[in-house]
Automatic annotation (TrEMBL):
It comes from Rhododendron simsii. This is Leucine-rich repeat-containing N-terminal plant-type domain-containing protein. SUPFAM superfamilies: L domain-like. Residues 33-74 form the Leucine-rich repeat-containing N-terminal plant-type domain. It comes from the Eukaryota. Residues 1-29 form the signal peptide. Gene3D superfamilies: Ribonuclease Inhibitor. One of its GO terms (biological process) is response to other organism. SMART domains: LRR_SD22, LRR_TYP. Keywords: Leucine-rich repeat, Membrane, Repeat, Signal, Transmembrane, Transmembrane helix. It holds the Pfam family LRR_1.
């Protein structure tokens, strides 16, 4: 009798353990829509025939995408909060990213797509989703104009952005007034962008929270201060001033 009871208890424990394992797997995985989004992003970054991000594996459903290379999730919500994908495009040709691929990542706070031959971002309406984005790194790509960012709409919608790194692209002076809508920006990095001639501080007067503006390695000849904006913000080394 006692033995039977013991057995029953044991099988009960087995059941409990199995159920706990199942629940844990279900809860600790990443969100399905974000996993699918990551696989689409992998296809896009590898197009037409790259081979990067091998750990982002479609076949192995047991692997939690929160553990994939370059992906960081919130440990409570399991939502993707950071994507660190600098230098991941190992294939020839410019990368043209359709912004709608980023839509599933509603809690994304930091996105690094530096050094990926990114030539343009298309599909501007669809960029509205990234409301939580605070840091965007697009350094060292092939972006050569505002139009390559689908007008500036694509950036100006990112109103919570605090850090924007567009260094080492070829943007030119035309982009400056358009950045003015990003009123929460604290750090704006614009080195190596073929800015030339005179820059008017007025062009930055919407950036009330700016702490640092790096305009190094351009061909700026003069900076015209207006509105009492403090010039100490500017890091203008290696210009012709
Ligand atoms: C990759 O794709 C390009 C363009 O489609 C092609 O020219 C090249 O040969 C391909 N390379 C490999 C290794 O398949
Ligand atoms: C994770 O998400 C919870 C709930 O939204 C939030 O309170 C917490 O601050 C987040 N943690 C991190 C590290 O973002
Ligand atoms: C971006 O992707 C969406 C969804 O797949 C598609 O409807 C849209 O036409 C694409 N936009 C561009 C400019 O390719
Ligand atoms: C600035 O660069 C643009 C584009 O490269 C060029 O057309 C323009 O003449 C340059 N302006 C000055 C003042 O050098
Ligand atoms: C400004 O940016 C350039 C290029 O990225 C970098 O080398 C330099 O250290 C930066 N300057 C400051 C003062 O942060
Ligand atoms: C939140 C926000 O500002 N959304 C705007 C993003 O851009 C589109 C089109 O450019 C606007 O229609 C939205 O109002």
């Amino acid at each position: 009798m006692e033995y039977l009871q013991h057995l029953r208890m044991r099988s009960l424990w087995v059941v409990v353990v199995v159920v706990m394992l199942a629940v844990e797997n279900g809860c600790n995985g990443c969100l399905e829509k974000e996993r699918i989004g990551l696989l689409q992003l992998k296809d896009s970054i590898n197009f037409p025939n790259g081979t990067s991000l091998p750990s982002w594996d479609q076949e192995d459903d047991g692997i939690d995408c929160c553990h994939w290379e370059g992906v960081e999730c919130n440990s409570t919500t399991r939502q993707v909060i950071k994507l660190e994908l600098a230098g991941k495009r190992y294939t020839d040709g410019e990368w043209h990213l359709n912004a709608s691929i980023l839509l599933p990542f509603e809690s994304l706070r930091s996105l690094d797509l530096s050094k990926n031959g990114l030539g343009s971002i298309v599909g501007n309406e669809e960029f509205n989703g990234l409301n939580n984005l605070k840091e965007l790194y697009l350094r060292g790509n092939a972006i050569f104009s505002i139009s390559a960012l689908n007008g500036i709409e694509i950036l100006s919608n990112l109103t919570n952005l605090e850090k924007l790194d567009l260094s080492e692209n070829n943007l030119g002076n035309g982009i400056l007034p358009s950045l003015n809508k990003l009123s929460n920006l604290k750090f704006l990095l614009l080195a190596w962008n073929n800015f030339n001639g005179s820059i008017y501080v007025k062009e930055f007067d919407g950036l009330n929270n700016l702490k640092e503006l790096n305009l190094s390695y351009n061909e700026i000849v003069s900076i015209n201060a207006l509105n009492g904006m403090e010039l100490k913000l500017f890091k203008c080394l290696h210009n012709e001033i």
